[in-house]
TrEMBL record:
Residues 27-42 have a biased composition (Low complexity). One of its GO terms (cellular component) is nucleus. GO terms for biological process: DNA damage checkpoint signaling; DNA repair; methylation. Residues 92-102 have a biased composition (Acidic residues). Residues 1-131 are annotated as: Disordered. In contrast to other lysine histone methyltransferases, it does not contain a SET domain, suggesting the existence of another mechanism for methylation of lysine residues of histones. InterPro entries: DOT1_dom, H3-K79_meTrfase, SAM-dependent_MTases_sf. The keyword tRNA-binding does not apply. It comes from Periconia macrospinosa. It is an enzyme of class 2 (transferase). The keyword Lipoprotein does not apply. This is Histone-lysine N-methyltransferase, H3 lysine-79 specific. Residues 200-508 form the DOT1 domain. Belongs to the class I-like SAM-binding methyltransferase superfamily. DOT1 family.
Amino acid sequence: MIPNFKPQLIKRRSGPPPVKPAPGSKPPQTSSTRPTTAAPPSNRFKLTASTKPRTASPAARTESTRYLSPPRPRVQNRKRKVSPSAAIVWDTDSDEDSDASDDSNARKRAKTSSSMEPPSLQRGLKPDYKRRIRYHRKSSEPTPDAKNDVDRPIEPARLIDSIKLTREKWASHYKSPFPGLEKNLVVNLQYPSPGRPETFEIISPPPGSDDVNPLDDIYYTIEEIIQNYLPAQLVEDLKLSDEADGIVRRLKRAVFKNQPDEFQSALSKFNTIIKDNLDSISDEIDNMHALPLSLVNRITIQVYQRTVSYRSHLLRRVKGKETTYGELKPRFAHKIFEQTNLNSQCVFVDLGSGVGNMVLQAALQTGAESFGIEIMEKPADYALDQASELRARAKLWNISIGPIKLLHGDFLNSPETTAVLQRADVVLVNNKVFPQNINFDLLNKFLDLKPGAKIVSLESFGAGAGKQGSRNENNIFNIYEEEVFESGSNMVSWTDASVEYFIATKGC
């Protein structure tokens, strides 16, 4: 232990501070009051008397400095908050978005099928009345000869059908759910747009496998279409969501009873309904002002499965892991977009964008102009593949996305990054394991941010609550107001526990 250093015990509260009882009175007894024991020592780390000075061991010093960041001056306007949706209960599957009720189209029908995504994923961001969600070609969309960076041209739209994945060499262990057929059943699924249908080979991976499951993909996709694209009266009249005889139930029953003809018949009926109601579907999309998270989740999963999932093991072999920490999950991205008020009029920047998940979700869910840069070649390459697939798949879902720009390079030495930071509204940087010099250089980069811009980070650039350090009046970060939040459980790839994250707003 460092001599004369007195550790502070930081108490987190998710509710209002307790009321002190009047002198001589007993504290009120409530159902949440816990029995108390003898008061702990004033210094809980010093349980026995000792006059011998102690110093930290080399192992302890190594552990305490594993994640280096700039010295943390005390910032007076720094606030500590617990995100409302993460307070007390860390399992955010039960969370409900406070703004979801503002958009009646987001939850116009109750879900009844067991194939649906968790109900918590139905919440959406605040309605964005300036965004046109229905697909329309923009002049800003890339052409085949457009350049994304010096290494590789942009691939504007390249749809990968499910059948391509299940017929490649890595899918040889799949089995048909319809034993007895000479060839595997091949079907088409029509999406809520005039575009061509997607082709699926009806086979199943082994139980417990993480491989692409064409049946689940079809079930979830149909449910999202019924939930978000079809007029409520049509769904009710045709009983498309009926638990006993709805379209998804019919498909599952056909698989259970080994009736491939019935499966194909039910799916063909659904495809006909979509084609016959494209005008009504267009009206429904035009009435949308925010995409439900479940729909965003379904599309991003499809994109990831068709471009990254089957070769994600190769990412474990990349060099440069000293600046790599993991990925933020879609629900965490949703929470960040909500807290920073990201919308279609904004510019989103991800410094260290990996395979591009956050950049793509920002463009899809909010319609924002989204920029990402990644220093490692393989993740950056996968990101371009994902962007190409998202452009094609969003069109298939009849959704217009924001402009996407992905670069392979060093964000500290990229002229394009410097230029986009001057326009950025929200900057994300997962700096959890960044060395000290990178965090210092980033602070200098952030001098170009405009007033009101927000920085979202996994490690504070300013003062840590309860940490020792003297205030430096000349510190760059004094022009920011920083708040700290808890993510809630299961929000990041490296742990199931809740993690801290920080949102700093640049002042004038």
